[in-house]
Write a structure and sequence with these properties.
Elements (H helix, E strand, L loop, with lengths): L8 H14 L4 H20 L2 H18 L5 H14 L12 H10 L12 H19 L4 H22 L3 H25 L8 H20 L2
């Protein structure tokens, strides 16, 4: 069975990373890895037309809200692309859950008029808590939701901090708290040739604390 036909996303990713590691990260191995990963992503998206339609409809609405402002349409287009290529992480499901939709909306806040507002950080935290609660209560927790949550957090909070946080010390502390767990876990996973696990909750506590600090400072600042 080829990698493209594997239904388990972790098994498929581990097979791709394992082959890349065995080939010593040579240029032809990297090219083959990218081709096989893209091929599998396209096949998995084609097998889930409902989810693909949901993602496209949601991002069309976000495009309408983005208008001409920055980062606007480019941000939404990137979000759509990342969501589509990760549809295989839905595993046995063929559609997005309400929690998944809220996660994608949170990740696209910078592209809407709500992004620069003083309420933006508090809204992002509320959406984050709500999508997690919905996913657990509705039994829709999935690798797609987990990784979409990580992407949304990284994208939104990095944007808010770099664009609207005036203190260099707070910016440095926030980026370090958010980037260090992800970079560390990803580096270990790639070195071992296996799909990286999400950072443990203990590693994410400083990141959550910095989100609260940045959100509160943004809310209180005129």
């Amino acid at each position: 069975m080829s990698v493209s036909d594997l239904t388990d996303s972790r098994a498929a990713t581990n097979a791709l990373l394992g082959a890349l590691r065995r080939d010593g990260w040579r240029p032809h191995a990297v090219a083959r890895f990218l081709w096989q990963a893209a091929d599998r992503s396209a096949r998995q998206a084609a097998r889930r037309p409902r989810a693909l339609g949901q993602i496209t409809a949601l991002h069309c609405l976000l495009l309408a809200r983005a208008g001409q402002q920055r980062p606007g349409r480019g941000w939404v287009a990137t979000s759509w692309t990342l969501a589509v290529v990760h549809l295989g992480l839905l595993e046995h499901r063929d559609r997005l859950s309400p929690a998944d939709m809220l996660t994608l909306i949170r990740g696209n806040l910078p592209a809407t008029s709500m992004g620069p507002s003083r309420w933006s950080g508090l809204l992002a935290i509320t959406l984050d808590l709500t999508d997690g609660h919905l996913a657990r209560n509705q039994g829709t927790v999935s690798p797609f939701g987990d990784y979409a949550d990580s992407f949304a957090d990284a994208a939104y909070w990095t944007w808010l901090t770099l664009s609207h946080e005036p203190s260099r010390a707070v910016r440095a502390a926030a980026i370090a708290a958010w980037a260090l767990p992800v970079v560390t876990v990803t580096a270990i996973g790639i070195r071992r040739g296996t799909m990286p696990e999400r950072p443990r909750p203990a590693l994410l506590r400083p990141a959550a604390a910095m989100q609260g600090v940045v959100a509160l400072r943004h809310f209180l600042r005129r």
